[in-house]
Amino acid sequence: MATYHAPNVSACAFFINKCLTKKSTNIVFISKDDDELQKFVSALHTFIDKNTPYKIIVIEDNKYSIYSALEELLNPIKPLFVVCTLDAIKKQVAGRKDYAEKVLKLHTLETISRNKLLETLENLNYQRVDFTEVPSQYAVRGSVVDIFPINSEKPCRIFFRVNKISQISFFDLETQ
After folding, report:
1. What is the full DSSP assignment across 119-163?
2. Residue 133: φ, ψ to 5°
3. What is the pLDDT of residues 14-51, one digit of tens each?
4. C-alpha distances in Å from residue 176, one per residue of 77, 120, 121
5. Helix, strand or coil for residue 80?
6. CA distance linking residue 2 with residue 108, whole number of Å
7. CA distance 40 to 29
8. Contacts by 68-77 with C-beta closer than 8 Å and gap 24+?
9. pTM for the predicted model, two decimal places
10. What DSSP character marks residue 53?
11. Which residue from 83, 81, 79, 69 is spatially nearest to 9, judged by alpha carbons?
12. CA–CA separation, 64 vs 81, rounded Å?
C-alpha cells in the first residue's frame, strides 16, 4: 500500500486521476472530514475521464452509504476507487460473512410467501412502521410490502399475488 500527500485536494484529485488511467488495482482515498471529501469529489469529477475503467464509490458517514459500498466491495465488476472520510472507515460494520448472510435479494416472479418475507425482515432487525421513512424499516398494507433497505437511497414497494412477487419498484418518499 502506498501513501501520498498532496498540497491540496485538487492536486490530489489530479494525481489520482493520472493513477486511474495507468493502473487497474483498487485505490482508497481517505479524507479528514466531510468538507474535504466533498471538495475532493468535486475536483475529481473535473479531472476524471468519462471512460475510466474504475467504479468510483463515495462512502459518507451514514449507514446507507457504508452498506451500499459494502455491496459493491463484495461484488466488484471492475477495479474500485473508494473515497471516504476517516470517521466513515472507522465505523464498525458486519463482517463479510455476516453481511452476505443478511442480504436479502428478491426478484419479480419469485415464489415467497408474504409472511415468510415479514418474518425474515423481523429476523434482520427491520422495524415495522406505518410508513417507511428511513433505512431498516418496513410497512405492510394488504398484498403490498414497502421496505427501506439499509443499502438503498430509496425504499422499494413489493406487490404480491398469492405467494409470488408480481412487481418490485422503488418509490419517492415524498410522493409515494
Report:
1. HHHHHTTPEE-SS--STTEEEEETTEEEEE-TT-SS-EEEEEETT
2. -130, -30
3. 777 776 666 667 778 888 888 888 888 888 888 777 77
4. 32, 24, 21
5. strand
6. 44
7. 9
8. 68/151, 68/152, 68/153, 70/94, 70/99, 70/151, 71/103, 71/151, 74/99, 74/100, 76/26
9. 0.57
10. S
11. 83
12. 18
Contacts of 71 (CB under 8 A, 6+ apart): 103, 151
Burial group, residue 16, by CB count within 10 angstroms (0-12, 13-18, 19+)? buried
> Could you give the strand order of the β-sheet that contains 55-59, starting from the edge strand earlier in sequence?
27-31, 80-85, 55-59
Q: Are strands 80-85 and 55-59 parallel, antiparallel or unpaired?
A: parallel
- Helix and strand element counts for the chain (H, E): 6, 8
158 conformational bin, left if phi > 0, alpha if psi -120 to 50, beta if neither: beta
Amino acid at 42: S
Query: Under DSSP, is residue 106 helix (H, G, I), strand (E, B) or coil?
Result: coil
Nearest alpha-carbon partner for 158 in 138, 131, 135:
138
Chain centroid offset of residue 123 CA: 21
Q: Is the pLDDT of residue 140 over 90?
A: yes
- From CA 54, how far away is CA 150, in angstroms rounded? 24
Bridge partners, residue 55, by sequence: 80
Neighbours of 34 (CB within 10 A): 13
